[in-house]
Write a structure and sequence with these properties.
- By secondary structure, this protein is α+β, with helices and mostly antiparallel strands.
- It is built from five helices and 20 strands.
- The chain has helices at 30-39, 90-102, 165-169, 198-208, 264-276, and strands spanning 19-27, 44-49, 52-57, 60-67, 79-86, 108-111, 115-121, 127-133, 138-143, 146-151, 156-157, 161-162, 187-194, 212-217, 222-226, 234-237, 253-261, 281-284, 287-291, 297-302.
- Strands 12-6-7-8-5-13-16-15-14 form a nine-stranded mixed beta sheet, covered by helices on one side. An eight-stranded mixed beta sheet has the order 2-3-4-1-17-20-19-18. It has a three-stranded antiparallel beta sheet with strand order 9-10-11, with no helix packed on it.
- The chain is globular, with a radius of gyration of 19 Å.
């Protein structure tokens, strides 16, 4: 995919150590959602206060749930396609998928060649990807109107093959307990968004925030951007239709996602670009909250 990478004129790019941080979801049943993320995915409950809760590992909050029992689910609006939980190795992914199968929880194991993954929805319909890196097997590419993968031996794949679960589960040892919490190294690897317009979204994520463009396909209606050469930190698509409206204020689902910058200086540079661009932003206790052109919330903060 890196042959499609592009940087901004003038050389500005977001700090290469920038990453995706916690995902904030508005949920209708806070208790049920907490139970799901603990029991099915192995997240730990880090805190709970009134109508909010934080889950993840003792080292890192991955998910913030906000109870909004009067909110509604809307179908054809901008918002979350999925957020992706990145495991430190394929053995831990095998443990996570094994847990899903033991619980008979529906999921779709998929081999993207460069990553091994499975997809599922939480009980309220929020899309989730669980994945581990496998760059030794090959790489993705976006070429014009096609998305695919090139295996390490040079052969081509559509990048959406069924995952070889037998091979994956061989990475589990006798001491691996499926019911244990997720490992401390687990983090949010990327977020994939339904947006109204790809070019507008790139103008924001690339043009203002400074993420590098790793691939664009107008025909598929998809683009990837990232920091530091990663395959993608943010996916963008128009698969719900070009020109879809923003999610209403009372929408369940994604409230915002976090972009973590490595230090205060890096945050100040991006904040200055936001101000120069005339974008509305609000100072929060833990960072700077702004909205992309599809009104999806983005929280900029120092890691």
């Amino acid at each position: 995919m890196n042959e499609k990478k592009s940087k901004l004129e003038g050389g500005y790019t977001i700090h290469p150590l920038s990453k995706i941080g916690a995902i904030a979801l508005n949920v209708s049943n806070l208790g049920n959602q907490i139970d799901f993320y603990q029991k099915v995915l192995g997240f730990q409950l880090l805190w709970r206060k009134e109508d909010q809760a934080g889950l993840g590992t003792p080292e890192r909050e991955l998910l913030r749930l906000v109870g909004q029992p009067g909110y509604k689910r809307y179908s054809r609006t901008a918002g979350l396609y999925h957020f992706a939980v990145l495991y430190p190795n394929q053995g831990e992914l095998a443990r996570a998928i094994g847990r899903l199968f033991r619980l008979n929880y529906p999921n779709s194991p998929t081999d993207h060649i460069m990553t091994k993954t499975t997809y599922l929805d939480d009980p309220e319909g929020n899309g989730i990807e669980l994945y581990a890196e496998s760059p030794e097997d090959g790489e993705w590419f976006i070429d014009g109107d096609s998305f695919g993968a090139r295996r390490a031996d040079g052969s081509l794949s559509n990048g959406r093959e069924p995952l070889d679960l037998e091979a994956l589960f061989r990475q589990l040892g006798e001491d691996d307990r499926l019911e244990d919490p997720i490992p401390p190294e687990t983090r949010i690897g990327h977020v994939h968004l339904h947006v109204s317009d790809i070019d507008e979204a790139l103008g924001f994520y690339h043009g203002t925030l400074g993420f590098d463009v790793m691939g664009v396909s107008p025909g598929i209606g998809m683009a990837f951007v990232s920091a530091g050469g990663y395959h993608h930190h943010i996916g963008l698509n128009t698969w719900k239709g070009s020109g879809i409206p923003p999610a209403p204020p009372d929408a369940l689902g994604l409230d915002h996602f976090t972009v973590e910058l490595p230090d205060r200086a890096a945050l100040e540079i991006v904040s200055a670009r936001v101000e120069t661009g005339g974008l509305a932003a609000r100072e929060e206790a833990d960072g700077l909250l702004l909205r992309d052109p599809s009104q999806i919330g983005v929280l900029l903060r120092v890691k």
